[in-house]
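Q: Given only this backbone (793 positions), what sequence would you predict?
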């Protein structure tokens, strides 16, 4: 099907009858068309290995957004580590500190007087959340299979792989003259994880199945009908009692052989073929309601899935996945390196020429978002959905001073708008809990969320003032709500989120205060995440650059939304007036972009700090860019040079995006090589902060996109930062603002052809190098441009 005819593709979409069809997808290509463009799976869509995983960061992730598993691929012992995305510690709670409101004026005053340590001590005492920490996301436990009598695999016969096009993990080996295959999928339609075991010889499959969990309150019980049940209640967290019930229900469906139940395990012997179905649920309904019924849910899921053969479950899961995955295809060139196993490629990537590894990383980023964030699920947290601990790093929560936002950077440009649904749903929630915080903590209208949130949508400052007392997390997330509109142009959706944008603005209209020294309007107390400015022990300050940039972007987006919806002209005037009173972006003594209102950059505790918060203005926002603000863009470059290229996983990924926005492809690529190396990428291709944190995977995928295409305002910049390392290639199915789709190919480092279509029509400036063409697009009608001078083809 041609994408030229939008009405046809839209009909096909609605006729599709899948979850996707139910969503507003204006501007997103439909599966069939993009699938045709991308072709079918090749070995380039595989992560593969010659040995089982020993460590968790070698195991392979499957997921359907809500439930997930890490597959180890063991031979005589197999482990599937299991997650359900609402299994967090604690229960509904309101962490507002009742002393905060009275203490804040004094904290503010101390900051304006430069008495930062005193401000921090007072804030620590009176302003922070109660409890000081948020709840953590926790593992459900493990499904363990042991295969008595199964010997070592025959030499060279073992292989495990993750097919990221089919969303399927497979382990194959030959032992005792028998070929064994084990396949694992996470089904979005049936809401189960399904494991399929086959053997080339009848009656060769025999194993014991156990469920184990580090959850404190749980029991395991064999039921009739080949079922094993893990049931319990969740842990308390920092004094908040556990309020959730959970269940993991497994059912063994065997052909041939016998299935027997012991107390807390199942035994299968002499089977020809076995399917194990795994359903998981908790009683979580929403942040205030834990009245769900995990028993009823898991029973219904298992009963429905048990009616289908594994092949059908797996095919449906693959189709569902491909409908999104195949919207985009990428080719950055291929060398012999691509034939090596994935762990070998990662180990050698910093010295080898392996452009296909970058393409795989890009595709894997898309795979990980599709499998960890689907309509109805929780948003992807610090580990997506994959977490083996009850005490994971940073609670595996939502850190919203960069990390959660980075998770969603690739979603719109790489054609996965429905993956953003859970994030939007979470913002709808925190706009409610954050209104309580705005009122009770600040005496302000609107809503606020600080630097973290959790399943219970806590919005107060946590951990310590130097990390948590930053009122900007919710405002930043609002820009994702706007982007969703700007890429897809669904005005009905925009109307539904407009009150949230407006509420975020109202909070700042009420809490911005006049800086006594300069007269500018500033946030106070705040900080530049999580950077110690060198004036005292902490980071508290007034009006850091990032806050000003986020508020500027929020006010601009909200004013644009009001314009589209033709409402609130008075409010828009108010926003515009306040926007003009914010501290502007300024250049400091080293030629750098100043991170704070004062030129403190040279005196900071850590010159190479991982956060590059003040560079938000260049990416993800574009209020700073080489065309309109060349001096500020040069200052960003200086700041980046001072900070250095190497940082934690996510911080490395951010730097790639920034260098791409500075249009320095070779520099961006050199940082990408570091990201793909074994210091920042585990054998299973998970990002290493270290430890594992998934944001770098998504930030890396976004960086690769930004190197190939940038969508800013109505401009579409083709190959803005193409590195010498990728002389020829193509990328198809990208999205740009204004409901546009972009296909590109290049040869010898120069654009070969671009095909651009706007589903709604409109004027766009298409740019390649210094060549610019203004084109009026008719709705749904593709324009093809050839060569670096953008000739009409
Ligand atoms: C922020 C970062 C850390 C880490 C944590 C989850 O606090 O500064 O590096 O990524 O989030």
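A: Predicted residues:
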């Amino acid at each position: 099907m041609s994408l030229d005819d939008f009405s046809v593709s839209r009909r096909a979409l609605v006729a599709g009858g899948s979850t996707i069809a139910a969503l507003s997808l204006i501007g997103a290509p439909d599966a069939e068309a993009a699938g045709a463009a991308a072709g079918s799976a090749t070995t380039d869509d595989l992560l593969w290995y010659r040995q089982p995983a020993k460590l968790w960061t070698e195991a392979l992730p499957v997921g359907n957004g809500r439930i997930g598993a890490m597959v180890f691929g063991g031979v005589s012992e197999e482990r599937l580590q299991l997650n359900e995305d609402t299994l967090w510690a604690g229960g509904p709670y309101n962490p507002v500190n009742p002393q905060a409101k009275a203490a804040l004026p004094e904290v503010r005053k101390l900051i304006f007087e430069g008495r930062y340590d005193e401000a921090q001590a007072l804030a620590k005492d009176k302003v922070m959340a109660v409890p000081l920490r948020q709840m953590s996301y926790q593992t459900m436990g493990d499904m363990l299979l042991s295969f008595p009598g199964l010997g070592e695999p025959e030499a060279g016969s073992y292989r495990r792989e993750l097919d990221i096009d089919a969303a399927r993990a497979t382990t194959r080996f030959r032992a005792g003259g028998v070929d064994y295959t084990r396949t694992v999928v996470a089904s979005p339609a049936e809401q189960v994880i399904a494991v399929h075991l086959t053997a080339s010889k009848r009656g060769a499959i025999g194993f014991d199945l156990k469920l184990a969990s580090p959850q404190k309150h749980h029991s395991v019980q064999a039921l009739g009908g080949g079922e094993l049940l893990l049931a319990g209640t969740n842990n308390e967290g920092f004094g908040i009692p556990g309020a959730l019930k959970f269940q993991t229900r497994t059912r063994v469906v065997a052909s041939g052989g016998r299935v027997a139940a012991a107390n807390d395990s199942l035994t299968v012997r002499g089977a020809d073929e076995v399917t194990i179905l795994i359903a998981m649920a908790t009683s979580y309904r929403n942040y205030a309601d834990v009245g769900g019924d995990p028993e009823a849910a898991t029973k219904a899921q298992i009963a429905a899935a048990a009616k289908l053969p594994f092949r059908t479950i797996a095919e449906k899961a693959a189709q569902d996945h491909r409908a999104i995955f195949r919207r985009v295809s990428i080719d950055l060139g291929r060398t012999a390196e691509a034939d090596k196993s994935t762990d070998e490629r990662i180990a050698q990537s910093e010295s080898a020429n392996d452009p296909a590894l970058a393409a795989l990383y890009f595709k894997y980023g898309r795979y990980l978002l599709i499998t960890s964030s689907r309509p109805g699920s929780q948003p992807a947290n610090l580990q997506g959905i994959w977490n083996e601990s009850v005490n994971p790093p940073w609670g595996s929560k939502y850190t919203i001073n960069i990390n959660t936002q980075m998770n969603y950077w690739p979603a719109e440009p790489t054609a996965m708008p429905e993956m953003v649904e859970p994030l939007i749903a979470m913002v709808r929630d925190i706009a409610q809990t954050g209104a309580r915080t705005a009122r009770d903590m600040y005496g302000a209208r609107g809503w606020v969320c600080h630097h973290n949130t959790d399943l219970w949508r806590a919005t107060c400052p946590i951990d310590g003032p130097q990390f948590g007392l930053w009122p900007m997390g919710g405002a930043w997330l609002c820009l994702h709500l706007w982007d969703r509109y700007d890429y897809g142009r669904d005005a009905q959706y925009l109307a539904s989120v407009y009150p949230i944008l407006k509420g975020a603005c109202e909070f700042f209209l009420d809490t911005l205060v006049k800086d006594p020294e300069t007269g500018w309007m500033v946030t106070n107390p705040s900080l530049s995440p999580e950077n110690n400015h060198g004036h005292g022990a902490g980071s508290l300050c007034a009006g850091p650059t990032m806050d000003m940039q986020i508020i500027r972007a929020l006010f601009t987006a909200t004013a644009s939304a009001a314009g589209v919806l033709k409402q609130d002209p008075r409010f828009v005037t108010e926003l515009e007036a306040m926007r003009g009173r914010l501290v502007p972006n300024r250049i400091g003594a080293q030629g750098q972009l100043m991170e704070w209102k004062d030129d403190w950059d040279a005196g900071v505790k850590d010159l190479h700090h991982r956060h590059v918060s003040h560079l938000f203005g260049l990416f993800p926002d574009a209020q700073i860019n080489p065309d309109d603000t060349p001096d500020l863009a040069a200052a960003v470059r200086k700041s980046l040079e001072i900070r250095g290229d190497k940082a934690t996983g996510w911080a490395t990924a951010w730097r790639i995006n920034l260098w791409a926005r500075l249009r320095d492809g070779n520099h961006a690529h050199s940082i990408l090589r570091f990201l793909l190396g074994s210091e920042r990428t585990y054998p299973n291709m998970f990002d290493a902060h270290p430890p594992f944190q998934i944001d770098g995977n998504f930030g890396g995928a976004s960086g690769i996109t930004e190197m190939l295409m940038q969508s800013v305002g109505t401009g579409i910049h083709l190959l803005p930062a193409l590195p010498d390392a990728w002389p020829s290639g193509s990328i198809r199915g990208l999205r740009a603002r204004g409901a546009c789709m972009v296909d590109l190919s290049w040869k010898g480092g120069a654009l070969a052809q671009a095909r651009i279509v706007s589903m709604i029509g409109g004027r766009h400036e298409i740019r390649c190098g210094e060549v610019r063409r203004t084109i009026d697009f008719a709705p749904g009608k593709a324009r093809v441009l050839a060569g670096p001078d953008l000739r009409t083809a």
